[in-house]
């Protein structure tokens, strides 16, 4: 059979020794139940499969320890044989031309391919994106092993991937851009949307893993209340022109949530990259924007609230700002992680603050309204030097304001009957600050009794 002869001629024999912790260090896809050959779909960095330098993502496994894989071999059968084999394994493999989607490659400008090298971030903090020559595997003269001929390499640490055309809300057609922190960029056009989605997810996962490991490293030297909770690129919307010819420009910025505050920078600050003692100073002094959570509000927008076709949009606004900042994340997962990090930061912000007092007028008498983490709402009368009234946060039934100075708070006074209430009318010259602080305290209280929040914290 000519095809069988060709199969044998193009195959190569690889010997592996199983590692106690990493095993062989590879994953497979395919099988007769998926109408595919058995293909290597993943190789773990620093594993036996990686260190041998003879296996590549997309290789077809033909046999293991003399047992052939044929057109009837299922995925589970192949997996069982790989797992139950002795520590010393001989594996016959061949390069599979049609396995592009598993082989970590894309066409770029019709003459280059892309390959993802997943280095161990705990060792180097660098995972790289490699642009490779389109030729097949080349022979290494020093050791005879096959490898890709590398043309361009980009570090993925703190890099940014976007499917949007720069500065706009327009998505590329099956393409994306990767931008490294040193300014190096790569525009990649995939053959189809499915391949584009798979590769965007692969690279995004690599970037996120590097970021998460770096956050863990930074947080080792920080108290829990000052931990970095989120790091990542966002797009900020800037309005251009005036109605009715108003348009929007989106610029890339780097967002960091640390402790009880959110910082937006033009790019990741050096102290964040190098983990030096100037981190807090640089976060504040070199930020474009700085928000204390207890003085700000954060909200994810619904699709019908968004300004244009940019997806995954949220707003953040402090009491001192007349209009909110519109921010967009690349993926919905990024937005969910950002929202969860904000809630944790808000909790840290409020619990560290403990209480906040505002001068108010109640029943024509000057006093001070205190929001206290343990006490709730409390109005202090300076004439008699005691609290005139006090309600727990959970007693607040509803509130309303006139957008100027007046605030109405209605509290439930009978725990057995929510219809029995008391309403307190207040006047406050810093009403917006009071409302934002109220929102922060109430959100933190809700989060503090949420089991999922407590578990994640």
Automatic annotation (TrEMBL):
**Any idea which UniProt keywords this protein has?**
Cytoplasm, Cytoskeleton
The answer to whether the entry has keyword Cytoplasm is: yes
Per its record, how is this protein called by name? PDZ domain-containing protein
Upper classification of the organism:
Eukaryota, Metazoa, Ecdysozoa, Arthropoda, Chelicerata
Q: Does the keyword Zinc-finger apply?
A: no
Indicate the segments forming the PDZ domain, all copies: 13-97
Q: Which organism is it from?
A: Oppiella nova
Which superkingdom is the protein from? Answer: Eukaryota
| Compartments, as annotated in UniProt | Cytoplasm, Cytoskeleton
Family from the record: Belongs to the syntrophin family.
One GO CC term, this protein = cytoskeleton
Pfam families, A to Z? PDZ, Syntrophin_4th
A GO MF term: structural molecule activity
